[in-house]
């Protein structure tokens, strides 16, 4: 595994609920990264293909065709970059493809900083901070030791837990019952919690909370809608409950978060 993660950012764009790609096949002269915040897309890079959703980062080396197709509206970070130290062909081959981050809370925090820096990332100090965040993302991927091409069987979440995560992603912003998911999988709620935590380092309810708060942050930053409306869009019954969860998890009220991003 590579030990030097220094990169040179070249381009950055944040897309919110993109319905489809303008080009379903593209080739770039630099490294590119699609870091998914919500939604799903199908991809093919050389002989690697699959689907990517929240927690997945798809990386394409230079001068290789990147085939992609949205499955559901896609919110993602698109990054162009170059490595500051040359890669061997073997390293480039290992780094290409899909990586998966299990630490959803840490990942959402990195994504939030990238969004904040994106509008002015070509200027200092934003450029240096964006460089740091991209390198931090690579180090996070490396720390979790997720293999790109042929992960060890013990590193893969079992199919039931992959199915559980997809079920939760699809229902995160509406009423849901963990007992229904457990019954669907044919296991008890206690088994669901234990197995999901082992696979993704968070509980099913914790995973849903991270998704909901991620959406709440974006709506606070990007709209002037009232908190009651935002709460409903994020799966909470009312603004009071959203405020309580938001403050407990993020250390500030929703109104303070919105004010911070209006400066």
From TrEMBL:
PROSITE patterns, per the entry: HTH_ARAC_FAMILY_1 (PS00041), HTH_ARAC_FAMILY_2 (PS01124)
GO molecular function, one term: DNA-binding transcription factor activity
Protein's UniProt keywords contain Transcription: yes
UniProt-listed Gene3D superfamilies: Homeodomain-like
Membrane-crossing residue ranges in chain numbering: none
SMART domains associated with the record: HTH_ARAC (SM00342)
InterPro entries registered for this protein in UniProt: AraC_XylS_family_regulators, Homeodomain-like_sf, HTH-like, HTH_AraC, HTH_AraC-typ_CS
Domain (HTH araC/xylS-type): residue spans on this chain: 162-260
Domain of life: Bacteria
PANTHER family: HTH-TYPE TRANSCRIPTIONAL ACTIVATOR RHAS-RELATED
Name assigned to this protein: Helix-turn-helix transcriptional regulator
Protein species of origin: Cohnella nanjingensis
